[in-house]
Amino acid sequence: MGLSEDIERFESCGKGRGLRARRSFQLGELLFSCPAYTYVLTVNERGNHCDYCFTRKEGLSKCGKCKQAFYCNVECQKGDWPMHKLECSSMCAYGQNWNPSETVRLTARIIAKQKTQTERTQAERFLTVKEFESHLDKLDNEKKELIENDIAALHHYYSKSLHYSDNSALEVLFAQVNCNGFTIEDEELSHLGSAVFPDVALMNHSCCPNVIVTYKGTIAEVRAVQEINAGDEIFTSYIDLLYPTEDRNDRLKDSYFFTCDCKECSTKQKDGAKMEIRKLNDPPSAQTVKDMVKYARNVVEEFRRAKHYKTPSELLEICELSMEKMGAVFEESNVYMLHMMYQAMGVCLYMQDWEGALKYGQKIIKPYSKHYPAYSLNVASMWLKLGRLYMGLEKKTAGTKALKKAINIMEIAHGADHHYITEIKKELEH
Ligand SMILES: [Zn+2]
Ligand SMILES: [Zn+2]
Ligand SMILES: [Zn+2]
Fold first, then answer.
1. Fewer CB under 10 Å: which end of the chain, C or N?
2. What is the whole-number distance in angstroms between the Cα of residue 212 and the centre of ligand 1?
3. Are 409 and 375 in contact (CB under 8 A)?
4. pLDDT for residue 425
């Protein structure tokens, strides 16, 4: 578990409560682990992972009733029943029309858990779910409306299987889930599900974090990615650190209601490289650059929405057109160019266009390594995707090199004995 004497809750100056180290930690050392208070497997991964323990394997057996939940064995099925029973009959009744959001599914499980679990859990040694910040008073109308929609969906899909309190208590709960919930990703950063890890949620944010959170099944593990001294506050990152300071703080303000004052945010050291402008004989004017940044931010947002309804080839076209336009002003290492390349790579992977994916990945990896901190899951997963693409395309030398790069980062972030690393080492042997 990691000894609780090694870390402690404290009042962090200007940041409210936080977590602090009581002894020093070496690079890669485990600070603590936290079992999920509650969790839910994402709908798209059904059948690939066990609904109960999140193990990824072939030949899982399905729930005989709804045929929608999959398990390693009878033990996992039994273990999951207190949560699965919230959905099993409802999924049968609604069939194709059963579509609550993942937030609604997770929140239903929190309510069910709170009914049966009245004592403090192993996941709440430093912070309890009840203590979660809601920031309800700071929500704008758009956010309030989203919560109202979630409450309506909860009533719609869970009223038969779950008894819950009045709407005002539900508003608070949904607001708490929105700023304290976690998403669980696999080694390639594909979304696996959502979960609540109260002790992990106690950590404050920094854009130069000294720990990284990874997952072993449904357990969160927190490891040092910088040397930590006794008395140091423990910081994780809440957001993708690729983007420049202003973008990061827009995101933090919008989702978590604060502005970051870390070293990176005050020095803006990496912003220049992140916003690299092409070196032309006739350099673009300040206004041209400003307009292009505005265009870039819009296209990022446009693509995010388009993902839900456009075809893969339409999405690729958005990527290519926007890169062509931005390429007149931005270097290829500019984060807005990288963002679109990353999206294009994702579409290629989805379409099983391995050469296309590889082409984008090769362009992304070097600037990625420069923009992200030394130990980053984004960089590790990019090396891993590249390595697997090379191996699949019979390019063994490049594949071996890339997979080893991924392992180097993952040994620190995930711990050397993580099953992901064991699997990659097997891929290296073949
Ligand atoms: Zn299982
Ligand atoms: Zn079922
Ligand atoms: Zn910061």
1. C
2. 25
3. yes
4. 98
What Rg do the C-alpha atoms of the chain give, in angstroms? 22
How remote is the CA of residue 172 from the centroid of ligand 3, in Å?
27
Closest C-alpha to 283, from 295, 292, 296, 274: 292
For the chain, the domains span: 1-36+197-269, 270-369, 372-430
List the Cα angle 125/225/185 in 5-degree steps. Answer: 70
Q: Measured between alpha carbons, how far is 28 from 410 in angstroms, rounded to an integer? A: 9
Contacts of 201 (CB under 8 A, 6+ apart): 127, 132, 180, 182
Domain 270-369: homologous superfamily in CATH: Tetratricopeptide repeat domain (1.25.40.10)
According to CATH, the topology of domain 372-430 is 1.25.40
Q: 1-36+197-269 has which fold? A: Beta-clip-like (2.170.270)
Tell me if 305 sits within 8 A of 321, measured CB to CB. no
Cα separation, 149 vs 152, whole angstroms: 5
Q: What is the DSSP letter of 223?
A: E
Question: What kind and span of H or E run contains 419?
Answer: helix 419-429
Query: Comparing 1-36+197-269 with 372-430, is the CATH topology the same?
Result: no
pLDDT in tens, 349-365: 999 999 999 999 999 99
**For residue 252, how far is its CA from the centre of ligand 3 (angstroms)?**
9
30-35 vs 38-41, strand pairing mode: unpaired
CA 175 to chain centre: 18
Taking the centre of ligand 3 as the mean of its atom positions, its distance from the CA of residue 15, in whole angstroms, is 13
Among residues of the chain, what percentage have pLDDT more than 70?
A: 99
Tens of pLDDT, residues 305-351? 999 999 999 999 999 999 999 999 999 999 999 999 999 999 999 99
User: What number of H helices and E strands is found in the chain?
Assistant: 16, 12
Let me know how long the chain is: 430
Kindly identify the ligand whose nearest atom is closest to the C-alpha of 217.
Answer: 1
Element (H, E) at 196: strand 191-196
Query: CA dist 257 to 145, 178, 182, 254, 264, Å?
Result: 18, 12, 17, 6, 19
Residue type, 417: D
Q: How confident is the model at residue 3 (pLDDT cuts 50, 70, 90)?
A: low
What is the distance between the alpha carbons of residues 111 and 103, in angstroms, rounded to a whole number?
12
Please report which ligand is nearest the Cα atom of 62.
2
Using DSSP's 3-state secondary structure scheme, residue 20 falls into strand
Q: What is the mean pLDDT of residues 286-290?
A: 96
Distance 309 CA to ligand 2 centre (A): 29
